[in-house]
Structures are given as C-alpha cells and as structure tokens.
C-alpha cells in the first residue's frame, strides 16, 4: 500500500507535467519574447522553445546555475525568501518588456514561486522585504494575505508587470493557490489587483507585525501619495489574456484516475482547503471516524483525496512543513485507528526540509511508541520532519519541476483492517 500511495502521487505529477500542460495552450503566433517565471519555469519554457526555438527568452527558475545562450538567458533566484538574484531577475525582466512596442507579442509562462523569484522592492529595501516575508511565512498568514502585502511593495506584482510594457500579452498560469485566483498566483503580475494599500496594512495588524518603514510606505499609499496597483477595468488589461492551464484540481483528478483504475471508490473532498494544518488534520480524522463508525458519507474502503494549501503558525524550533505537520497531527488524532496516508507538496519541497512530505500507516502510532517517540513533543516543537525521519517515513522526491499545491491521499480501510475492492 505504501508503494501505491507514492505511485498515485508520481502518476498525478506525470500527467500534469508543466510541459504537457503548456504545449496544449501555446499560441499560433510567434511571440517576440518569452518570459518564464516560477518553480516550473524551465519545464514550461522547454515546451515553448520546441515550438518557437528562435524566440528570445528569459527564464527565472528556483536556484540552479545562470545560463546564457544565443537565444536567451536563465537567471536563477531564491524562494521562498527573495535575494539579490531575485532583484537582478526582476530588473532584467522589466528592462526587456519595456523595450517592446505595441506591435510586439509577449508570451509569459507563470508558475508558483514567482512572488519571491521576481522581486522588485518598492519603498523598502531588499533586506527589509526579506525580513517581512519571513515574518509573514511564520505568522500563519495565508497566501492571499501574504501576497496582498507583497503587491504593494513591488514594481512587478499586482498587474504592474503588464503596465510596464505596451506589448500584447498572453500569460499562461499554473495555479498553486486554493480557488485558482489569478491575482494570487505569483502575486498576479499581469492580473488586475482588487486589494489595496489599506488591505495590506490590515494584514500587518492582524498578525501583529510592526515593521515601521513598511507601514509608512503603505500609509502613504492609503493617503493617495503613491499610485495604487492597476485595478479591474484598467485599460492596460484590454491587451492582456490570462489563462490558467493547470491546477491542484487537475492533479487530484489524475490521482483519482489512478485509484479508480485499481477498483477503489475514490472521492475528491476539495482542492481548496486552507487553514492550520492541525485543524485540517482534525477535520480529516473526524471524517475517517464517521466513515468507519457510520459508513457515511462513504462506505469503506475508500480513498480520500484533498488539496489546497495548509498553513502552520510556527512556535517551535523544529524542522517540518505543512504537509508533514498535517500527517503528524492526523496520526495523533487517529492514534487508535490509523490509516494509510500520504501528504506532500507537489513541488517536492515541504517547508524547511528536503522532503516533499511523508507517509503514515495504521501502525505508525504503535511504531512510534515502540521507538520511544513522543508524538505530542514533536508537534509542540513543530518538528514533524524529525519524527518521520526517525520512522523512515519521509517522502523524498527532489524538486519535481511542478507546482500545483498540496496533495493528500488517505485510504480508509474497513474497521477489521482488511482493504476490500469494490
């Protein structure tokens, strides 16, 4: 069963590979320039270059080595916290698009991670923006809130990249956010921004984040002393087409096909789960109990799939990520009636670890006790990765060149513990 869980994740990733999704949406017209930004930048660019091999390109992936070719340039940058390379990449992109004319056609390939990889600080220094990003990530703020702040401290986010060029634009987006909100993916560089300077200030207030210089910049914006990001209805977007070509739902549907082909009743609960990993685990555990005790809303055996993006309010010094944290809490809540489950980040990197996620089995609680591992202690320290490492249950995939958000699969067996096929 462990192998099947992993294979369902791998098959889902294979069937939603960025190059496949990109190929299906490439334009017939040859673009004047191709820009690819995000964790899937290189795989999306690969598909585009097969069709447009002589078009100039700029690519901004996560990490790696800089590459200069006859037709273009690869400028790696940092994620999830921007660095000097992120600023260099943003400046190079802004310079390139500003040279285009109204007769030019710009193809943008955007995937998650672009908010950090393409960083053009506005009103604050890079170091201050790095500190703020780290504080937001640790605060438990969701991605919409984090990007609301980012958009109002940037020269490229929140539609500002579209405003920086007179060219026509086709932007192909891979969604890594719950609900597939285009304005949130990579902070929506070509998308109208419905948020305001005031909204960004409210995020800082909500999470008790001080940052006086940031607050001063945002307050100036609230007073009308700084230009707002382009809003819905702005004429700039009359020459922009934004298109989502893949999402978390696409990934979950591919995994559902895997389990259905093997005869299992399979349900996608939602691709939009958000909130604390602990509370998401509590919900999934309650659903498992309902299935086992009352055989509702599903009769076991059943495979439950879910996605979205959990968050973790970090309070301890440990190592982990939102998917490992989810699984550790799931094991805690189901200590007397474990399940087979896998949770992973589709980009292959979960939190501050090298693991994509982890797995649990019906025996996980008993195995932990036999090894003297006190699960609650690991949870208090946000140290889920060390817990799963001790059990040998980390999922290590390496970077997947994809980014379609969280992936969770739970196999609920009948109470007697024997998985029956339907």
TrEMBL record:
Organism of derivation: Meiothermus granaticius NBRC 107808
Keyword Kinase among record annotations: yes
Keywords (A to Z) from UniProt: Kinase, Transferase
UniProt keyword Kinase, yes or no: yes
EC code(s) of this entry: 2.7.1.165
Stated name of the protein: D-glycerate 2-kinase
PANTHER family associated with the record: GLYCERATE KINASE
Taxonomic lineage: Bacteria, Thermotogati, Deinococcota, Deinococci, Thermales
Top-tier EC class: transferase
Gene Ontology molecular function: any one: glycerate kinase activity
MOFRL domain: residues covered: 302-406
Coiled coil regions in record: none
GO cellular component, one term: cytoplasm
Domain annotation MOFRL-associated: ranges: 7-218
InterPro entries the record matches: GK-like_C_sf, GK_N_sf, MOFRL, MOFRL_assoc_dom, MOFRL_protein
